[in-house]
Automatic annotation (TrEMBL), chain A:
This is Electron transfer flavoprotein-ubiquinone oxidoreductase. Residues 538-570, 572-602 form the 4Fe-4S ferredoxin-type domain. It holds the Pfam family ETFQO_UQ-bd. Keywords: Electron transport, FAD, Flavoprotein, Iron, Iron-sulfur, Metal-binding, Oxidoreductase, Transport, Ubiquinone. Its cofactor is [4Fe-4S] cluster; FAD. Accepts electrons from ETF and reduces ubiquinone. It comes from Solidesulfovibrio aerotolerans. It comes from the Bacteria. One of its GO terms (molecular function) is 4 iron, 4 sulfur cluster binding.
From TrEMBL, chain B:
Keywords: Electron transport, Transport. InterPro entries: ETF_a/b_N (IPR014730), Rossmann-like_a/b/a_fold (IPR014729). This is Electron transfer flavoprotein subunit beta. Residues 36-206 form the Electron transfer flavoprotein alpha/beta-subunit N-terminal domain. The keyword Metal-binding does not apply. SUPFAM superfamilies: Adenine nucleotide alpha hydrolases-like (SSF52402). The keyword DNA repair does not apply.
TrEMBL record, chain C:
This is Electron transfer flavoprotein subunit alpha. Keywords: Electron transport, Transport. Belongs to the ETF alpha-subunit/FixB family. Residues 11-177 form the Electron transfer flavoprotein alpha/beta-subunit N-terminal domain. InterPro entries: DHS-like_NAD/FAD-binding_dom, ETF_a/b_N, ETF_a/FixB, Rossmann-like_a/b/a_fold. It comes from Solidesulfovibrio aerotolerans. Pfam families: ETF. One of its GO terms (biological process) is fatty acid beta-oxidation using acyl-CoA dehydrogenase.
Length: 618, 266, 339
């Protein structure tokens, strides 16, 4: 089996998220009739409809991680008969709240005005006319229209993807293969001619080992790239082509979540949607959606503009859950599921070339996610639908998938749609967060309420530049000597620094209850069911070992969602254990040092890998 | 030349949190349809062994017969189909462990009886020696009897085929030992333990080839009649997960060591 | 009224295996609880000594002959089938050893009966037999009964005390089973026992000793003491005849293919991505007790741990006893005491 296999197909697709769901759903309707017969013929297997193969990295098509609350405009348009009751964990939105959380411990790093606001609320909270202050939280009196999702749905992305995938496969129009990471696009003469799957039967370093099987080459007339926020295929194309002038991808967040069986006494109504701001750090937003079956999907987003070098989503998530406003009704609940994933938040600012000869980009990796409205699924889905319509049109006309033809059909549809219009409004809405939380919130409101006419301008920077030294971040709170001591002690024990540092500045210790408050390792297993088949190379590597050796922040370790990157007591280069990795992609942008090859990138290389979460509820 | 029929059910992925619930159709698992599933691990080994054998003995053929809900099987097949070449035969019914093994064997028997061109004299009936769901280790024997197979082996880790078509089988017995037997040839039933082959890599081309038959098999799957009332369950419970941990602190090493010694001897 | 038949193969030396004697206790308990008749069915080359040993339990039916001496499905099933018929049994109880587990399900099928295997308890409740067994790899337990008869039940080892009633003169009924050619297509060639050389994985040991990564980490004096750790671990294994397990962190250490403790391999790893061994007792040392590791302890009944950290995972309801102490000191002393 040592020879590289090669195969021809009509359309090869990378990644099965909502974007690909939208694409394949639309394509299926256009290329096969209801009785399964071909509308048009394949060029590789004459007589059959065009052959469409989709490769998904994860071990199942239902392990995506997301919220989700969505207006579901695009989804409903392409699936008019959609009945939420047919999809487990899916329900219409019944109530929406935005809540400001006061810091009950005084441990978060707040600016003076924010501290003053907290103090005033604690002191006078309930007495302000019209102010609903309770449980150290204020429910905002109204939800700005750009955030509102009324009439929409809240659901589990995993269950939704599974349902869409099964429906598509049942039409016979496409095959969706899980556990099949795509290593790279095949680019010949500036044309994408297909993809190469990842090698199997290799060691950590990728060298042939027992049962070596080189990844197959899949050559296709059209390659559809929908590999999400950190997809290696999309990034490889970007590396080869560069981004359009003035575009850069500098805004990310990692979303970490739990799905929780709520305790019996919890009064939250199914369909309730709560968004929180202000706590555990002003930069960290939270969400909680109540799904059918007394279940909540909840979590936080830790963004790249949170200038903390020890940004640990897991510990912050535990503090967030325990905020009195939430804990009141969460306490006694049990974790069903855990997951984490990066959001590519650059949106329009980071939009890559959407098409080229032989390929098209859809979904979050193509800049669809809208940070102003906090929406990514429907936008991703809709971009897929638009490409689906375009491809059917080109197939019907017998036209080749050239850059020009895709531009005229797909890009034109996208540019004329609400996805684009709203992306433009959102483009500069978050800029001000670069200057701080309050400017950020004001800037976002300004942009949202004026539909993009105004913004609070601020310069963006590559992600690594946003990470100060630990000493700088804790200046005035922990002395340099103390940090040095903590660092030495933790390194000797092979531990990350965030626990010791957070304890030091007043974050209370987490008291495990074995149900909702469990150790990070336990969450990986009890909630994430993380596993990885042997025989694949490490997909996280460190470009320049000496850069790591000289690095004092080691943000990659602090931020790792799976404790898969750990302190190496014997060397400055962190260790990576692929069996623990949840493929969140956070390491890609949680590194404080630039790549020597490209100052926009960091020292972490994130490639296609197999395994990860085995939970279909996130 | 062998006709190898591998029986394999689907079970929840081993790390899932399982909780029994009683529904209208009897006992099952909470959120059963939401739990990611896999082909039963021991049956998977049987499948890899079958594929390996079929490759070594020209003219042989492998069928994978599975009782399970169609939609779930479709999903699981997207992974299994990449591992080894086979033709799928589906009995559309419950996959859970609470179904009686006799009922399962009858459903599988009905499905196998419908396989066109299956030659009973060349039949090797493969399966896992236990399922990860029922854990009973009885389905294969019952099915074997129904198929008239009286040479049966369980806990098989190795099968060697002689030039004359005879079978040498290595079965797990007590104390980590193996019993080695020979059988004059097919038909025979073999319940596999882990076998000797590692899990094959995902071969996309094998997957594509299988898929040509998997989809039609799923489409024409017949509902399987299983009697959920065959077993009268009085209760199904989860064992208490949490122990009362006694934490012994600030105690001299000698005392601790002695306690451990006493415990060892008890 | 139920007629309960206890069945067992008889070993070459004419005795019954311990597992069978345990199953006999289960059968007796049930028969007494139900007020049912108990009979014994034996098969083997020569059953006389065994028949005498269990004579007090009830009438004995026996299938004898050389062909029934070996553990072979076809002859075993034929013998069991004939015994069940001869005794007109409605409930058939046997041990779940490899031989009976292989044959009895097929016998149930021949009798058009049903089977429940690997039962851990069997009792009479409201005049009905009730069995208890695990589902989903012992992750849940069910109590069940059935209307169908004959009902075959195999009982797991270690759940009942072995029967040790006084021997007597058995009332023996010979059941003849003609041995056909079809029954002897299979020939037993050999039994291969595992090599007796220095094995650290001993599935039959009473005790599992788990070594965690702490053994190789820097200790209070700022240095690691790996050679001593190795001696202490091996010393204990030898003295206590325990089986060795390890955490993933420990076997992963030391890089590709080789471990810091030379006798450790990935086969020792206990846990989610490792083994799930079965032992009566387990002692974890220098291991934090994280869930991915502890899931591998599912079949370890009694659990104790030695760890420096009072807040380690074992303290959270995962062990029966946690000794907060230095494992080096504790094991040094334990080894001394073991002599
Ligand atoms: C915690 C969290 C909460 C969120 N909440 C909301 C919300 O409430 N509402 C909302 O609208 N949006 C929300 N989002 C955003 C939303 O989930 C994304 O915008 C959306 O999933 C993007 O869809 P996509 O199809 O472009 O990419 P993805 O969903 O990321 O799908 C890409 C797929 O490609 C696969 N893949 C990647 N690389 C490869 C490779 N090399 N080979 C093969 N396959 C590959 C991945 O495994 C993945 O399945 C949230 C996101 C997170 C993380
Ligand atoms: C998907 C996944 C799969 C996994 N699979 C497995 C698996 O199969 N098996 C497994 O084991 N792990 C597995 N893990 C890893 C697991 O979560 C833990 O990381 C691992 O078990 C930790 O090993 P440890 O307790 O030996 O090491 P550590 O966590 O490093 O703990 C060492 C312990 O030793 C103690 N110690 C140090 N010196 C002494 C002394 N002198 N006396 C007493 N105590 C001392 C310390 O207090 C500490 O508690 C998996 C993790 C994931 C995410
Ligand atoms: S990858 Fe290297 S350079 Fe980047 S944060 Fe980690 S240790 Fe530092
Ligand atoms: S190593 Fe894996 S789990 Fe950790 S941050 Fe990177 S992708 Fe996420």
């Amino acid at each position: 089996m040592n020879e590289r296999q090669s195969m021809e197909t009509d359309i090869v697709c990378v990644g099965f998220g909502p974007a690909m769901g939208g694409f394949l759903t639309t394509l299926a309707k256009g290329i096969v009739n209801e009785d399964g017969s071909a509308v048009m013929e394949s060029t590789v297997v004459p007589g059959l409809p065009p052959q469409v193969i989709c490769y998904e990295r994860a071990d199942d098509i239902g392990v995506g991680v997301s919220g989700v609350v969505s207006k579901a405009r695009g989804i409903r348009e392409s699936l008019p008969e959609l009945d939420p009751a047919c999809i487990p964990l899916c329900t219409p939105i019944t109530e929406e709240k935005v809540v400001y959380l006061v810091d009950p411990h005084g441990a978060s790093r707040r600016s003076l005005p924010l501290k003053a606001a907290d103090a005033a609320l604690k002191l006078l909270g309930g007495k302000f006319p019209g102010c609903r202050y309770k449980d150290m939280a204020v429910e905002l009196p109204y939800i700005p229209p750009f955030l509102e999702k009324h009439g929409g749905l809240t659901f589990s992305l995993g269950q939704f993807n599974q349902w869409v995938g099964n429906t598509v496969m049942a039409t016979g129009a496409a095959q969706i293969w899980p556990a099949s990471p795509v290593a790279a696009p095949i680019i010949e003469h500036r044309k994408v001619v297909g993809v190469r799957l990842a090698d199997q039967g290799v060691d950590k370093a990728g060298k042939p080992d027992a049962a070596y099987m080189p990844g197959m080459d899949v050559r296709a007339r059209l390659t559809v790239v929908g590999d999400g926020p950190v997809g290696p295929v999309g990034r490889a194309i970007d590396e080869a082509r560069g981004l359009p002038m003035g575009h850069h991808q500098r805004d990310y967040a990692v979303g970490m979540k739990f799905v929780v069986d709520l305790p019996g006494n919890c009064p939250w109504k199914v369909g309730t949607v709560i968004h929180t701001i202000g706590y555990p750090e002003p930069e960290i937003f939270g969400f909680l959606y109540v799904l059918p079956g007394h279940v909540a999907s909840l979590g936080i987003f830790v963004p790249s503009w949170f200038d903390n070098p020890v940004r640990t989503a897991y510990r912050y998530l535990q503090h967030w859950m325990q905020h009195p406003y939430l804990w009141k009704y969460l306490k006694g609940g049990t974790i069903r599921s855990f997951g984490a994933k990066t959001l590519q938040e650059s949106g329009k600012n980071g939009e890559p070339y959407l098409v080229g000869d032989g390929y098209a980009r859809i979904g979050e990796g193509s800049g669809t996610t809208n940070v102003l409205t906090g929406s990514g699924v429907d936008e991703a889905w809709t971009s897929g639908v638009q490409l689906g319509q375009a491809v059917v049109e080109l197939l019907e006309k017998g036209l080749p998938f050239t850059s020009e033809n895709l531009e005229k059909t797909y890009v034109a549809r996208r540019r004329a749609s609400w996805v684009e219009a709203e992306a433009k409004i959102a483009a500069r809405s978050r800029e001000a967060f670069a200057s701080g939380f309050i400017p950020g919130i004001i800037g976002m409101a300004l942009t949202g309420l004026t539909k993009g006419a105004l913004c609070w301008p601020a310069d963006s920077e590559p992600v690594h530049k946003r990470i100060p030294s630990i000493e700088e971040y804790y200046h005035g709170r922990i002395s340099c000597e103390e940090i040095t001591r903590i660092r030495q002690e933790a390194t000797a024990k092979g531990l990350a620094l965030h626990d010791a540092l957070m304890d030091k500045v007043g974050w209370p210790e987490i008291e495990y209850d074995g149900k909702l408050l469990i150790s990070h390792q336990d969450a990986l297993l009890l909630g994430g069911k993380v596993q990885a088949a042997p025989g694949y190379a490490d997909h996280v590597t460190f470009e320049c070992p000496d850069t790591c050796r000289a690095c004092a922040e080691k943000t990659c370790i602090e931020a790792c969602s799976g404790q898969a990157i750990t302190t190496n007591p014997d060397d400055g280069v962190p260790l990576f254990d692929r069996e623990k990795c949840v493929h969140c992609g956070a390491c890609l942008w949680n590194c404080s040092k630039p790549s020597k090859a490209d100052p926009e990138r960091t020292n972490v290389r994130f490639a296609a890998g197999a395994g990860g979460l085995h939970s279909a509820e996130n | 030349m062998f006709h190898i029929v591998v029986c394999g059910g689907i079970v929840p992925d081993p790390l899932q949190t399982l909780e029994p619930v009683k529904g209208p159709a009897g006992w099952g698992l909470k959120n059963e349809l939401m739990l990611p599933s896999i082909l039963d691990p021991w049956a998977s080994h049987a499948l890899y062994e079958a594929a390996h054998l079929a490759k070594a003995v020209p003219g042989s053929k492998v069928w994978l017969v599975s009782l399970g809900p169609k939609a779930k099987l479709q999903q699981v097949m997207m992974t299994v189909a990449q591992k080894a070449p086979f033709e799928l035969v589906v009995a559309d019914g419950p996959a859970g462990g609470f179904v009686d093994s006799f009922e399962v064997a009858e459903a599988l028997f009905a499905a196998i009886s419908g396989i066109a061109g299956l030659d009973a004299s060349k039949l090797l009936l493969f399966g896992g020696w236990q399922s990860a769901s029922r854990g009973s280790g009885s389905t294969l024997q019952i099915l074997g009897e129904k198929l008239g197979i009286t040479d049966q082996f369980q806990g098989v880790d190795k099968l060697t085929v002689g030039a004359d078509g005879s079978l040498e089988v290595m079965e797990r017995i007590e104390g980590g030992a193996y019993q080695i037997s020979t059988c004059t040839g097919a038909p025979a039933a073999l319940g596999w333990a882990t076998g000797e082959l590692p899990e094959p890599p995902n071969n996309p081309q094998v997957g594509m080839a299988n898929m040509r038959l998997v989809m039609p098999a799923l489409q024409k799957a017949k509902p399987a009649a299983v009697n959920a009332a065959a077993i009268d369950y009085q209760s199904v419970t989860l064992p208490a997960q949490k122990r009362e941990t006694r934490v012994v602190k600030d105690t001299p090493v000698d005392v601790i060591a002695q306690e451990i010694i006493d415990w060892l001897a008890s | 009224m139920e007629t309960i038949l206890f069945c067992a193969p008889v070993a070459a030396d004419g005795t019954l295996a311990k597992a069978s004697l345990e199953a006999l206790s289960a059968a007796k308990t049930l028969a007494e609880g139900l007020g049912a008749t108990l009979a014994v069915g034996l098969f083997g080359a020569d059953v006389a000594p065994a028949a005498a040993a269990v004579a007090a339990c009830g009438p004995v039916f026996a299938v004898t002959g050389e062909a029934f001496a070996v553990a072979r499905y076809a002859t075993d099933a034929a013998a069991l089938e004939a015994l069940a018929k001869a005794a007109s049994a409605t409930i058939i109880i046997a041990a779940d050893d490899s031989r009976v587990s292989r044959a009895l399900p097929g016998v149930a099928a021949r009798l058009n009966g049903r089977i429940d295997a690997h039962v851990v308890a069997i009792a009479a409740k409201d005049g009905k037999p009730l069995v208890t067994r695990g589902y989903y790899r012992q992750r849940m337990t069910a109590e069940l009964t059935r209307a169908a008869r004959p009902w075959c039940v195999t009982v797991s080892g270690g759940c009942y005390a072995a029967y040790d009633g006084a021997p007597g003169q058995a009332s023996l009924t010979d059941v003849s089973v003609p041995v056909t050619e079809a029954m002897t297509r299979t020939t037993i060639k050999a039994v291969v026992a595992p090599s007796a050389d220095e094995q650290t994985i001993r599935p039959d040991a009473k005790m599992l000793f788990v070594a965690g990564a702490g053994w190789t980490k820097k200790q209070g004096d700022g240095a690691a003491h790996v050679p001593e750790a190795g001696q202490l671990i091996l010393g204990f294994l030898g003295k206590a005849k325990a089986s060795l397990g390890s955490s993933k962190s420990l076997v992963d250490m030391g890089g590709e293919g080789e471990s810091v403790l030379p006798f450790l391999t990935h086969l020792h790893q206990v846990g989610q991505t490792g083994a799930t061994p079965r032992h009566q007792k387990g002692l974890a040392t220098c291991c934090h007790g994280e869930e991915p590791h502890v899931v591998g302890w599912r079949f370890i009944t009694e659990r104790r741990a030695v760890n420096l950290d009072a807040a380690c995972g074992w303290a959270q309801g995962k062990a029966d006893v946690l000794y907060v102490a230095d494992a080096f000191e504790v094991m040094r002393r334990v080894n001394e005491l073991l002599g």
